[in-house]
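Appendix B.2, paired examples.
Example (i):
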Amino acid sequence: MTEPPIVIEHREHVWYLLVQASQLEHMIMCQYLFAEFSLKADGLTEEQQAAVDRWRQELHGIAVQEMLHLALVANLMSAIGAAPTFGRPNFPQSCGAFPPSIQLRLLPFGEAALAHFLYLERPEGMKRHDAAEFISCAPPPEPIAAGEIFPRAQEFATVGHLYRGIKDGLTALVAKYGEEQVFCGSPQAQATPELFRWPEMVAVTDLASACAAIDEIIEQGEGAQGAWQDAHYGRFLKIWEEYHALRAADPAFEPAHPALGAFTRQPFDVGEPQPLIGDPRTLALAELCNLAYEAILWLLTRFFTHTDESEEELDVLISAAITTMAAVLRPLGTELCRRPAGPAHPGRTAGPAFEMYYLMDNVVPWREAAWTVLIERLRQIAERCASHAATDPVIAAASEQVTAVADALDAARAKAASGITAPGGSA
């Protein structure tokens, strides 16, 4: 398959494409998490359950790497003077935020989800069909003509194609304007391997490090130079083969709950009506799940757009985001996939829709105000969890974790205010 070249003539073209890359990595990660949460933990044969447990670990590992990709894109944006963003459109996305060849929807683990994941992760140039649920509904955008000053959507059929276009564009801009001009962002704004606790994390300060960050994304997703066996594409292909072997042995094998990406209310940016949760107890759990997700995004936003935080405070922010994801969002989302969606959806369970309630932007740049807002929101989530904790052990455990996260941020804020740790980490 031949894909049209991506045109980059100035910084805003790169900026626009990096925003799209950020939203795409974010939404792909949510799709993988949804499929992971939907997998069953009982009711299967020993062989089937062992396979499902392997798939759960694989999906979780791939989703975590998508989080790394999102962080690498944030570093690329900071490096060229753009503010990293964790906002995105709501699901589903058919023909709007991305080219019509890229469509996104929350699906429980199964035939359709695996076909869709393989399609998204396929190496550039490989022909593969998306799942039947995804039908192209619009022609591709017209190529950008020479001299166009305003950035706009461009066609890319694969994730690898998008990133190679960004890499080529950055190379051309450096040749045109010079490295110092293109990479004008502060090195202090970069997430480092030490701060982000990821050896694969690349701090982007020049063209070489930008290319290294992009290569990391491409290699983990589709594989380097055709070696896709250990990349996301190859890992999904192995799951696909195991899944079909188990289905051939037992046609009744259903590894996942019939989860539905149901909303608590109609999303503000999706035209067609979306499924809504009708069961009151499920609705309360879904609201808490969405609040935890929102808190993670705010914590990451502050981490990647920090101002005068010390390294100790940055460590508190990233620890808070990781804890909230692992100890709050994951158990709540998993439980949600086991709860009934409501009378309007017989036989279906709910699932986290990862709702965006509004156009998310950054909080104010001043540290004290930003931390006050973060702590206040975490306290609200903890209080809301506590109101349901007596009747729901999953929510009770989440309440304790959110409270601990809020306490950690509060302690770090108090320490900074007392002058024990000054901005930059000096005593």
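Example (ii):
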Amino acid sequence: MDVPTSATFCLRCGRALTSPPSVATGFGPDCTRHFRRAAPVLPGFTPRQVEDALELLELGGIAPLRGRRVWLTVGHHGTTYRTASTGQCTCMAGIHGKPCYHVAAVRLIAA
């Protein structure tokens, strides 16, 4: 019997991930469905920002940096940003106090 040397767990709920697509994104199928259901009711973000946030989550462009409070997110051009669950982000929109899709992605995880 082969015993895995490392386990991969869902970044949202903590369950073990077994399928290659789930391992690649970091989220299980139940959490992915949750993001899709929660996205239309995400207040304060444009439909485009919500769409970009869902894409960010589906492509695995987000990783926890400090527990569930600070996340590393990837921008459209491959730049990495620090995004807090409280709404701060180091992208240009976030620096200017505007909502960005990085924050929307973090809020979908927390929803």
